[in-house]
Amino acid sequence: SITKERTEVILQGTSSLDPNDPAAVWEEFDFKCKPGDLKRRPCFITPYHYRLDWLMWFAAFQTYEQNEWIIHLAGKLLAQEEEILSLMATNPFAGRAPP
Questions:
Q1: CB 24 within 8 A of CB 14
Q2: What gap in Å lies between CA 28 and CA 11, rounded to an integer?
Q3: 34: number of CA atoms within 13 Å, CB side?
Q4: Most CB within 10 Å of its CB: which of 2, 10, 47, 83?
Q5: What is the pLDDT of residues 3-60, one digit of tens each?
Q6: Side-chain half-sphere CA neighbours of 43 within 13 A
Q7: Which residues pair with 13 in a beta bridge?
Q8: pTM here?
């Protein structure tokens, strides 16, 4: 069965020197097929899913302790590793210093 409400994990980064500053601007890493921007047309792929996007859906039902791979993913995004960035639809820090 599918729930009527959907919880999403959103990964964001900031270039602010103080991430706790209320004026800090947080920018989202978009996934190729995971729901996100409501103005973006839904992704349609068949018969398979993008695995990372699919895993993110299930991770929203649990804690990060049950999905330790999310911590590693966030670390690789912070390090701007090209292999990981290739799995993302957008990199809001392209051409800039890492978050």
A1: yes
A2: 6
A3: 25
A4: 10
A5: 788 888 999 999 999 999 999 999 999 998 887 777 888 787 777 778 898 888 889 8
A6: 17
A7: 27
A8: 0.82
